[in-house]
Amino acid sequence: MPVEFLTDEQAAGYAAFRGAPSRSELERFFFLDDADRELVESKRRAHNRLGFAVQLTTVRFLGVFPEDAASVPVEVVDYLAGQLGIADSTVLEAYGEREKTRFEHMWELRRLLEYREFAEVEAELRAWVDARAWTTGEGPKALFDAAVGWLRERRVLLPGVTTLARLVASVREAANQRLWDTLYGLLNTGQRAVLDSLLVVPFGQRVSELDRLRRGPVRVSGPQMKWSLERAREIADLGMGELDVSGVPPRRLAELSRYGVDGKATLLRRHGDSRRLATLLSTAVHLTTRAVDDALDLLEVLVATKLLARAERDTAKEKLKTLPKVERAGMRLATAFQVVFDTTSEQVDTDTGEVTGPKVATFDAMWEQIEAVIPRQELAAAIAALFELTPPLDSDADEARRAMLVGRFGTVRPFLKLLVEVVDFGATPEGLPVLKALKSLPDLMGRKKVGPAEVDTDLLAGSWRRLVLASPQLEPGTVDWKAYTFCVLEQVHRMLRRKEVFAKNSSKWGDPRAKLLAGEAWEQAKPTVLASLGLPEAAGEHLAARAALLDGTYREVASRLPANAQIVFDDDGRLHFAALEPEPEPASLLELRAAVNAMLPRVDLPEVLLEVFSWTGADQAFTSVTGGEARLRDLHVTIAALLVAHGCNVGYTPVIGGLDALKYGRLSHVDQTYLRLETYRAANATLIAAQASIPLAQAWGGGLVASVDGMRFVVPVPSVYARPNPKYFGRRGGATWLNLINDQAAGLGGKVVAGTPRDSLYVLDVLYDRDGGRRPDMIVTDTASYSDIVFGLLTLAGYTYAPQLADLPDQKMWRIDRATDYGAFQDAARGRVDLARVERHWEDILRIIGSIHTGAVRAYDVIRMLSRDGRPTPLGDAIAHYGRISKSLHILRLADEPGYRRQIKTQANLQEGRHALARKIFHGRAGQLYQNYQDGMEDQIGALGLVLNALVLFNTRHMDAALTQLRADGFEVRDQDVARLSPFVRHHVNIYLDTLRPPSGMMPACLRRKPSPEKTPFWHS
């Protein structure tokens, strides 16, 4: 019987076999242990023993007793019969002849295994579902599946599908109502009126106040910075950030605010008072900190690109303009000095060795010689030009750039005062002088005379001292307050990035130290964290074991060096590897690849998505942001069309059709209501699990090796969230998609970051924020992701870090004891790991990794906090020393195990293959990302990642079926060839939407139907 949020197929599959269990499921749920065998062997006849075993294992697997033993898949019956020594499994047919026997066995199993009726635990389940719905906000299908798991774990016989579905739906609805009522109850009458006014469209305007306030900055400019700060102040003045919403789970608050940020104001107005105002309150609370985040994001990119970088470029241009004058002046002076040198030095005859006196004897005679070559007035002009065009001798390399920067004061004047007023800055002791100077700037602006006592001269490092205190145009006893302003801003910019200056009313730019576990919270979390990561509370024995491992590895690898032709040492003792020879492709592999590729079905990309949806039910993960149930027919068709539109970067136009599911209004509504980062991730988790269950994917790997790498996108539209990099983006800005892929070719998750930052800053965040799949053990990255601190943090987190080291000869290897002789590694191992330093900081190291592990703080913020201008802090240095042990072990393994190097290379190539496929799919608009805001970038790249995983799953499943067919046909299929097949083939998939649309303008048939789960590949037709 179908229920509201379950499809007919899902309702029919409840508490029933969905095809044959996998091999792993057979071994987990249908293996008979000694206790099971004792129960089974108490039955006399073979059919009763087999029937009893079927009931025993089926209730363990499904949570219900089978109504008819004949409905159990034959694979299960054969597996049980083999364990019981029953040669003919068809004897099970006799089990159903006496129905009372089946009931007697069922009653016996319920008593022996202590299974309970649903009515006994209904109240307990209702409370559990209520707590989960209150804290997580999961959709009804996810809650339903979780409730089924809860009942199975507690040995409760599953109720009817309608009973359980109604319980979940009613409890979830009550939890949602309680959420809305709780937030509504925090508001007084005036605050409710303020929030409702956000939905009003002011006279003469085209959008509501909510639409205006939730739209962040786009362009990078001084006026836009002023507007951004005014927006942040206006949102803060609503007063909603001052309300105590700690009684609401953060995830639920974030979910509601996402609806308020994305939903239409007209839709919000239709809701009842409690839901409408609860949504508006959560949105206002979110926007209070988000607006400050946006303003500081804009400040960071404004200072970096429009001020510092532009001043650098303009300085370089000015230098190029003056270069001809400097060259001419320099040549004149050089020519004159050459005359001086030639005429006033003793002359030596190179043939005879005879030494004679200078050519001239007097000063006037020397000048005659000079003026014969260069007139005196030209020399004077050359000297004057050099004094004018070149910096003083005591200047530094930054003086010209900084002087150019001072000329751009008009860019920062509009927003400096607002910056100090709107952003609630805080600072560490190191950042406190800079913050104090920042807060003093508004008092200095516009004044004609500012004395040295009014500025912090300790901040004037390098050429800033000359520019601020000794500028030529200054009156005696005054300073250049404009130059001082830029001196302070430059340091604020640097301190913000290092988190030495932070914003208390911001989430992204806040103080990461305040988020670290401390005090009672850390003491409570510590046992669980240490047990999870396998780390000891005291460092002594652990560090001794690491030291012994490093020492033993050095000795073992050194002893095998004479037989190792893969490595050599140069005259300086630096380590070099021989290039890895590509593995040859045998004829058997080429034949297998051709045979499998020929058997793949020719399909359109939308058909791939619909077929994958039919296999996995991944489309059910797309739940409404409103929290309500889906009331749209053929929702999977609309979702598939939108995934194609976003994943291929072609927009709505190519997927609009005459069907209701493909009309513009429907597409726009579903896009805004159902497609968002959370639903992409939930759907992706389903695809990852499906990929891992396919035998071919298991032949590629066990899912325990993964790699993180970045894919670059040009962002040609104005955006605060794009950064310049001429190498990758030309004259535009851009963003990077850092994505995680395992050795089964499944994309486990990713993160969109602005520009092209070092991958090492984000690797841990990507790993801890994956969508699904097994936790990988080994992490492969490119050289850009390497640093000693990252080595240390990843090792502490329980990962084996395996970066590619392109500059290997320049890498320093590390040892514990300088006196130990490691043979050929003696010169390469020139660094010393200070274990005492690590031990001194061990408690803080544990607290750092514990805070990252529990999600209390982002790894990105921690790594920034542990480094200052490229130099580690004392704590960062201790973590780096710990990481150097792992780094040295990694290099030794690279030297000793060619297979290890090849494994790293294979995983890196797999990632490159995925990126190449992604480029082909994301072909619209020249492959450029046309999104202004970070949320939009994440959503569109989330669609691309989902389409990629769907295509990989489609290929893997059909390739696996092809291999099965080839084996059955007698084709020689070698395991080593199977492992080298690629899931990234695309010759059989049409991804170009213009060729999908028939002349009528309708979408092709593949978007009008939902393929059967049993769809037969074309070669079986």
From TrEMBL:
This is Tn3 family transposase. It comes from Streptomyces milbemycinicus. Keywords: DNA recombination, DNA-binding, Transposition. Residues 607-992 form the Tn3 transposase DDE domain. Residues 5-171 form the DUF4158 domain. It holds the Pfam family DUF4158. Belongs to the transposase 7 family. InterPro entries: DUF4158, Tn3-like_transpos, Tn3_Tnp_DDE_dom.
